[in-house]
């Protein structure tokens, strides 16, 4: 598997707090990488660094081998890094199609001189897209406010898929969802990977994390302390690293 | 049975149907209220249902409808413009002074008035996006500024003696409908087109619905709001020009309380003060409702002071209904 993203020795400090103490990892194309860790372990800081919100104090990010200098989330998007936030950032009053195309609406000329939004094209593209991801969203005009939590996740994921994101960061996407809907979101994360899109998946629900991810890593106090293929590790092992228990056991310097 | 429909009713209607239903419910409310008022006022005074009176209503509604068009865009962004009435007064004075005192050509004076409106709107927008003043306070400030300037311009006295060519804006008619109503109709049609069909309209609703989401997809929210408030200022100025023609005089107290009519019109027409929603047709019907109310109470011999009280109650009631609507969806 070729590496899509390489994170090398990234450090970030907020005043006296060392949020990231030199994190290094690699993410393959079409790979789903899970990040586990307690609150305050540095997960948020790490993904915010990758999505352009924070700039690392030290270390570097490489996307397909080329160094990434992200100054804003917009630049990250332009580079193909899409973050699906917990609050989703969808416009409730707009339709599904309007949301997926927001800011990038296709235009056509009405009466030969008036630039108007090409609704027919949006309808067609969205119908195809929704068919591809089995979202159970009725149609492209459905307003986001009429959707369930899982369907909203599906809209956000569909947006990333349609705009050919290379990396999708999902920050606790199932935290507020009913069990059935969580399953759907997990399926969507796998669907992204099947299309060759890499996914970083953050989740407190360890069985779910092990189920969806190819590989998992554990953060502890700003460091990556563990990394393994999902098949070769267990929930118990992850918990031991998340709580720092294993580190004391082995006498590893944290 | 699929996973996600398990948590929703099995026979959940298509999104398009749901939207249509919501739209009809909004317009239905305004329409039924208008019909009820028309019946009541016709019973109270036989003259209410005459051509002469409807001609008069058409003249009055065009001013409130114009303001309501501007207000629809502002409210759709989750803002509010309470400076409309006094910007109307300031631009009315500007236009009349340039024509009567400085003998400017009518068209040039109108253009200057529109520019003054744009400047007032731009200042409001600037306070909102650069100085982070909430829209209510920014336009409250502009209300005082514009009213003060309007009073200053002639020390509070009205201006008369406008040429017939100018007065024709209100007195002339085409197909039995006053010119000023045609102006309002044309502006409303353009506004409806922009709101529903263009990126500008789409971004207006998106910003009102979720400004953060608009920002994240790369929409320049600040620039967009500056445009919205500037254009709303131009529309207020256009209303000022029409108002002068309608009353054959410009007075610094012109348009007093008109922002309340336009806010009520927008909310009655289905717009939400919380942003993201609003239709021009709805606001137009809302404007018609407010005009019928104003005109009917006058014909019924109800004191203009009582009319003010009714206006206040209607505004609060309309916003209360907006709250209910948001809860019910």
Summarize the structure.
With 254 residues, chain A is α/β, with parallel strands linked by helices. Chain A has helices at residues 43-50, 73-78, 96-100, 119-133, 149-162, 179-194, 206-212, 235-242, 245-250, and strands at 3-14, 17-28, 32-36, 58-63, 66-68, 81-84, 107-110, 114-117, 167-171, 198-202, 215-220, 223-229. Chain B contains 13 helices and 2 strands.
Describe the 3D structure.
The complex is a heterodimer of chains A (254) and B (329). Chain A has 9 helices and 12 strands. Chain A is an alpha/beta fold and 254 residues long. Chain A has one domain (3-94, 165-250): P-loop containing nucleotide triphosphate hydrolases (Rossmann fold, 3-Layer(aba) Sandwich). A 6-stranded mixed sheet of chain A has the order 6-9-10-3-11-12, sandwiched between helices. In chain A, helix 5 (149-162) runs parallel beside helix 6 (179-194). The longest helix of chain A is centred in the last third of the chain and has 16 residues, at 179-194. The model of chain A has no long low-confidence stretch (mean pLDDT 86). Chain B has 329 residues and is mostly helical. Chain B has one domain: ABC transporter involved in vitamin B12 uptake, BtuC. Chain B has helices spanning 15-44, 51-76, 84-100, 106-129, 135-154, 164-171, 179-197, 199-209, 211-216, 221-247, 258-268, 280-299, 304-328; strands at residues 173-174, 177-178. A two-stranded antiparallel ribbon of chain B has the order 1-2. In chain B, helix 4 (106-129) runs antiparallel to helix 10. The radius of gyration of chain B is 20 Å and the shape is globular. The chains are: A alpha/beta (254), B mainly alpha (329). Chain A binds chain B through residues 73-74, 77, 87, 89-96, 98-99, 102-105, 107, 110, 114-117, 134-143, 145-146, 148, 150-151, 178, 180-181, 183-184, and chain B through 2-8, 12-16, 18-19, 193, 197-199, 202, 205-206, 208-210, 212-214, 216-219, 275-277, 329.
